[in-house]
Each structure stands twice: as C-alpha cells, then as structure tokens.
Amino acid sequence: MPATPSWPPRSAPRLFVEAPVAAGELVVIEGNPAHYLTRVMRVREGDAVIVCDDVTGEWACRVVSADKRSVTLEPVEKLRPRESVPDIWLCPALLKKDRFDIVLEKATELGVAAIHPVLARRCVADKLNLDRARTVTTEAAEQCARTALPEIAAPRSLSAMLTKWPEDRALFFADEQGGEHALRAFASHAGPAAILIGPEGGWDDAERDAIRAHPAARPVTLGPRILRGETAALCALATWMSVSGDWQQ
Is residue 169 classed as helix, strand or coil in its secondary structure? Predict the structure, then answer.
C-alpha cells in the first residue's frame, strides 16, 4: 500500500498572525498575507497552512475559504509551543538600509531575542523604519521556522543606552582595538547578555572610553581582521549561540 502523506506537508506555507490562535476559533488572514497565500502559494480550500502567533506557538490549519481579499483558516492541531529563546540581545549601530536589513534578517535566523539599534557618532544612517524592520524579521522567522519573533527597539544614542543599561545584563563590546577572546568570554558567562557592535566608521575615542568605563562592559575581540558592521554582528552572534545559546540542544 502507498504511504499515507504526512499532514501538514513540509511544503505548507508559514506565516505569523497578530491574534493568539485557539482551537475552535477561525483565523482570518487579510491584506498582503492573504495575497501571498492565494496569489503566490496558490492555496485552495482544504490546503494546509502553518500559523504562528508569537504567543501560544505553532498551529497546523486547514483552509476553509480563500478569495482575493481574505483567507479563512481552521486550526486543526497545535504542533509546537512557542520556543524558549536564549536571552541574548544584539545592539548593532545603525548601518545603511541594505546592510542593516542583513543584520535584521540573519540575527533573526540565528535566534536572537531582541535587537536594540544604537546611534553612534559615525553612523551613516540615523533613522530606522520600525514597521519595515518588523516585516523583515517576521519574514525571516517564517523562513527559518521560528515560533517566536525578536523584539525590535527604537534606535537610541549610545549614551542613552549606557545610562539605562540593566545591571544584570553583561554587555560584550566588540572592540576592533582588542579585548578578551570572544569565544572564551561568551563561554565563561552565564545569564542575560548583549553584544554591542560599532558603526561603519568605527567608534570614536570618547565612545570607546565611555563603553569601557561602564561596569557591565566586557571588551572582546572577533579576530585579527577588521570586519564590516554586519559581518561582526553575525559572527559574534553565531559564536555566542554555539557556546551559550541553543545550538547545543
């Protein structure tokens, strides 16, 4: 006898929804997500769609109806609870839009809990469209099958960030002028942490002095080469995940 196809199929489209999902309550998808389901993924009545709500977790749903404007889904089975996210923040200085999009997308894929953009004196960019940034991270989370979205904070100055820094969170400062080996520093720390990455032009002397003077700061080095901001952010986060995050599970 032929094998019974698994349900939901691995090829089922995935998307996040704003309202919590519950058994017995229909989910109505409208706007761009509905267009994606009907025009791009070509879903029809009876097809499967995987839905995450960033609260309860991941659900397998069946399409009840689909037209140009909306798609109605029926939750069939809860597949996974919302994932436990490692308590790591990424604090990258703002970069040019295309490069910062890379940071947003790949940091989400790597499993970051929160992204706190920083404004430094040598930042080329000074603004961030938060709605667009959340779209980038949401699409990245859907692509890599995350069940939790990273928090994205509004950009703030370095001085404001340092002034209000939580006492219990280590601040690993990627300093191109040197510091403790990042791998050893990350492995030796247990508890909440954050990684601070500089702008395209680097930190100026006053900023570097202010960071190093902060009691939570731990300067680290990412190797012998000067890395671009987006490269440094993702290398540091990947290193942290490998020794202190959830890659070992």
Answer: coil
